[in-house]
Amino acid sequence: MNGYSIVSLISLCCYLLMFTTFLAARKSQRIVRSFLVLLAFMILWSWGSLFMRTEQFPSPYFWHQVSIFGLLMLPAGYYSFFGDFVGVYNTRRRLFWRIVFLALFVVNYFTEFMIPLPEITHQGSDVIFQYHYTNWIYLVFFFMLLVAGDIAWMVMAKRRKDPQIMVTLRPLILGICILFLGHFLSTIPFFLGVPMDIVSGVVNAMFFIYALYKKQIFRVTMLISKENCYLISLFFGILLLSNVGLSLQRWLSISYHLEPHEILVIVGIGMILLTIVLYLLLNSFLNNFFLQDEQMQSSALADYSSQVTQLLRVREVFETLNTLVQNTLKNWSVIGFCLGQDQMIRMAYSSNPLDAFDLHLDKEHPLVLYLNEVKTISRWEDFKKTSLYRGVWENEKQIFASMHVQFVAPLFSENHLIGILFFNSTQNQKPLQKDFAFLQSILAVTSVALNNAQKYERAYMEARMDEDTGVYNRKYFHELLEEKYNEYKDSSLALAIANLDDFRLYNQLYGQKEGDLVLRVVAHLLKTAVADQGYVARIAGKEFGVILPGYDILSAKTLMEKVLEQLQSKDGLIPFVGHVTFSAGVCASPYLAGSCRELLSNTEMAVSGVKRSGKNGVQMYSEEIRTRMTTKAGHHSQYDMYASTIYALTAAIDAKDHYTFSHSQNVAYYAKSLAHEMHLSEELENMVYEAGLLHDIGKIGISEYILNKPGRLNSEEYEEMKQHVENAVDIIRHLPAMEYVVPAVISHHERYDGTGYPRRLKGEDIPLLGRILCVVDSFDAMISKRSYKKAMSVYEALQILDEQAGRQFDPHCVDAFIRMIQESRLQIRYSNQDTERE
Amino acid sequence: MRFQDKLGMESKESLWNEYCGFLNLSVAEFMKIQRRLLIEQMTLWSKSPLGKSILKGKEPQTLEEFRRLIPLTTYEDYAGMLLSKQASLLPAEPLLWIQTTWEGGVHPLKVAPYTKGMLETFQKNVMACFMLATGKGRHDYNIDIADTMLYALAPLPYASGLLPVLFQNEIDVQFLPPVKQAASMSFKDRNILGFKQGMKQGIDYFFGLGSVTYYISKSFSALTNSSSHSSLKKAIVSISPQILARYFVAKRNCRKENRNLIPRDLFHLKGMVVAGTDNACYKKDLEEMWGVYPVEIFAGTEPTLIGTETWARDGLYFFPDACFYEFIPERYRYDKEPMTVLMDEVEAGQTYEIVLTVFKGGAFCRYRVGDMYRCISTSTNADGISLPRFVYVDRVPEVIDIAGFTRITKNSIENAIQLSKLPISDWVAKKEFNENERPYMHMYVELERSSLLTTAVSKQILRDCLTIYFKYLDHDYKDLKTILGIDPLVITILPCGTFENYRKQYPSPIENMNPDLAKIQALLACGEVPYEWL
């Protein structure tokens, strides 16, 4: 085989390789089909040339004609390919050129006036093919030039509409130039014997593949598989060995005197090694020059997909995406927007803290309308060119400009826009097509991840929100308070509680619907006032808690006063009927409360203070204490107002549980006496007296069977029994002016060691009045006869009190109580009835 | 990125859609843009001291409240704040103050602030106008770098002076003559130089007030025939070979056809754009002279650039992002608080007075600019455009605008009569058109009966006398003669007692300004036959 044949063989192999690999590409694309046709003509050309030169069956002249057919049909193939490449589909013109070149071939076949049959001479083992061209050969060139001119015309017409087309056409134009040069050189005697035309054809095909690659018609990873690499390596291995094989055999037998079978083994091993080395080299070359980026992106994308779908927070999803983008595309970052419950698309993430985080887009925003229309990633510039962009506000334009957005992408879930991604280049670099494709590929998985995260966050928030008012609920309030208390232990944390005044009356007057509206208005007011500086929660039916981290007590008080003022003026609020006020208490740690629970209880005390001093106001806890300490006549009990109601309620319990009525009176009496003994203010004495009367009022909701059961209660019955505390609080809340007794009532079953109920408060966290009630309540229960026990003696009862001091009871209270009895400053009262469950 | 940079990079379709894509909008989409930009403007305007002074404590939040709470305004409502040019009182920082004469106003000038956003919108829309003027259909235009433009516009600080500045921000078009040079030249010299340069470089676009472009075009043949030093013949040595060839062919044709040289003989315009009033009178003549039918655009000092015709030249479409448009139906114009309709409520065949709220931080809100438009179609036209289509009718009847140059009001006529001390007892003035479709002001006057014995007053005396005072009171009126060479005043003297007869015969009084033609005819009839005889 001579050099000419080898070149033809190499060309043929190259073409075949391209052809087989492109068969794997998407043939639905016209351009891929026309490229395959082009390659087929090239294959015929090289194949014919090779078989002619190797004088294959049936004859060299047959293969010459095959080669000429391939060559002459090439221009028509080029025309179709260019048409598809630039998007001009003029089928008539294509057909015309096919007919012209087919006619040329037919005419030449019969006349040989343009391309004559070669003269074949044999010189020893070598065969020489010589073409004796006449000037008619230039007729072929003339027609080829006409096609080239037609292609140029087509391209120029397209360029007027789409100037960018020239950039993508550059490799094709260069390839065509090389093809023409090769054909021209092959007619020059200097290159006789060297198939310059075939070489230029291969180079031309390479340029075409590059153009298709740049146009994103295919991905290199899809075409160049491991099998293909191996085949190429094997082919080059055979080629090398077939050329050096004979010399190698001669060298081995002369130098090393090896036998033919030994040489065969060595050549075989050499062949394998050579193929492996070539394979590795080729693989490495392709990885470095073509595949590295794609593979890196693919692997990063795979990691991202597995990681992001497990994330449960929207911010984490965007953060992970940003990391992926920054690692894969240099100098790029992500800004994430997410659909909120208010149907606004708000900015949820940006790596740049200077970005406008309050930016939000409603469903009628031009960008949202645009993304709903295009439904895929789009260049920002394309959005700017739309008429929709005319509706963008000037300040939004400035914000967008400051973000240097290059691409904008929608995130859809079930056809609903759930988020938007801005991809911005920090160095304002021009986006590349491959970047665009990569970003496009991450959208689907990001949509899924965002959807999951949104659902989780929604569920998370729903569990923490009060659905009527849109603020946090009681449960989350306590969690938050605990968390913020610990966080702000060393600085300041203010707590405010606002309790609506006479809300029950309001509901009765204007109805539940109006009442709900007022709750929403107050919640909104508090939320607006606090903004993102604090947390608002609905902690009871008509009570809101406001946690204000970093606030001092005065600032908190001022804030609440402003809210109250606005509520009274109704300015800028959703209209509601009637007049609404609230009583608010404010306390702050660490100066006025040593623990989270103390903070809460002090604040509740402050609220009670306002309630008792005429409602409709805001009081700081310290003020309240000071007032109580200095003014004896400060407290005007509301008891008288509700005495008849309380009496009726306790009478109702009496019907179910005969003991309770007198027990409540005893407890009230003992509690007041103990408070006096402990030098509490008269106000607190009265308060604890009233709390004593009401502390078991919740038993009205407990079944008679449990109240009067002679034996021990089982666990279920005990759980129901424990409910009487919460029930009592619920009843008292319906006596608005008596709410100040709630802290004492709710804590009279708390144990000093923290094992009581319902809140498992501990030590000083239990309100003092609650601790007093606990001692005297137990004492009265012990010295009374019950259905399940006999009455103890006072001595025994005091002993138990003493034993349980520090465990069940506050030791100070116990000490004072025992001292009082021992010093006969307390008259013991005995109940006539004999049943109570404690 | 400038328009000219995009020319080399983007497809025609893409570029056309970017600038002219608003024509693809449906009425609903158009209104969405309008409503959205109104919210932005409402927020800016309501918070500004200017807005607060008009709102008097009210704060509109919705479009409905906007129309209910904000009264219709005129320049008097803004004069105090705008004339002092205090930027801090405005909805947004102005980059530029544009001025115009305020005929009939308490001050000689009106000024209007232009913000950055307004100028950007103006710029984009100017390009759209030229694309539409040079195109033959959708996605078609013919604009290239280094095209040349002959123009007949007043320089800055007049609104028309914005055009060269904004146009050059987008593309390197050569103005003939260059804007800076033109600023210091007389109107005539400017035209001569413009044509001279056009002979060298060709003329691609022609832009100006309809009346002025007509006048300049008419003067072209005079320039080519004149033997004066300033004639175009002197510049023949520097004419481009292409135009020179056209010149010789045209000369031969002109001799053959026995006519003067007209611009189309030498120049092949890509597009012609006209602004101002009374353009309808000049369009056909301009087409005959230039071979291109002009595209009319609608712009003003207060409204900015608000509308344009398309390649079809069959009516105007408003830009969605320049102003918020409301329309007062003609029959409600004289109501105390006239009702308005929006773009999606207008009816074909109805004439409306336009009410504008300038977007992007503009000062004017629900502003009665004083222009009348007729809606000619609300259905989708043959080109697939479904936005309502309008034609410019004229100024409001209380104002007589002649060729876009002067705006005469009742006030200015009364002042002229007062200053001239002419014994005119009653008058009406109406804008009319002569046999050549040219506008003029026709005054029907009745003299005081007592003065007839003591004063010699003829039609000519009245006309000369009033003209002197109109010129004294209004500089633009003077320009009608000096620039356009037209004398727009025609006087008809009515017999004494005509108005008295009219008042006896007809219960409703006749308006001084632009009464209906029927009323004019009735008035004339009252002069012919004494009322008592009827």
Question: Which characteristics define this entry?
Answer:
heterodimer; A: alpha+beta; Rhopdopsin 7-helix transmembrane proteins; Beta-Lactamase; 5 domains; B: Rossmann fold; GMP Synthetase, Chain A, domain 3; 3 domains; 5-stranded antiparallel sheet; 19 strands; transferase activity (chain A); HD_GYP_dom (chain A); transferase (chain A)
Q: How does this model look, in words?
A:
The complex is a heterodimer of chains A (838) and B (534). Chain A is of the alpha+beta class and 838 residues long. Chain A has 5 domains: 3-218, Rhopdopsin 7-helix transmembrane proteins (Up-down Bundle); 240-290; 314-462, 2-Layer Sandwich (Beta-Lactamase); 474-630, Alpha-Beta Plaits (2-Layer Sandwich); 639-822, Hypothetical protein af1432 (Orthogonal Bundle), CATH 1.10.3210. Chain A is 61% helix and 10% strand. Chain A has a 6-stranded antiparallel β-sheet with strand order 5-4-3-8-7-6, with helices on both faces. Chain A has a 5-stranded mixed β-sheet with strand order 10-11-9-12-13, sandwiched between helices. In chain A, α29 (768-783) runs antiparallel to α30. Chain A is elongated, with a radius of gyration of 46 Å. The N and C termini of chain A lie far apart (111 Å). In chain A, 39% of the residues are buried. Mean pLDDT of chain A is 82; it is low at 833-838. Chain B is an alpha/beta fold and 534 residues long. Chain B folds into 3 domains: 3-118 and 295-395, 3-Layer(aba) Sandwich (Rossmann fold), CATH 3.40.50; 144-269, no CATH class; 399-533, ANL, C-terminal domain (GMP Synthetase, Chain A, domain 3). Chain B has 20 helices and 19 strands. Chain B has a 7-stranded mixed β-sheet, with helices on both faces. The longest helix of chain B is centred in the N-terminal third of the chain and has 21 residues, at 27-47. Chain B is globular, with a radius of gyration of 25 Å. Chain B starts with a helix and ends in a 6-residue tail after the last helix. At the A-B interface, α14 of A face α2, α3 and α7 of B.
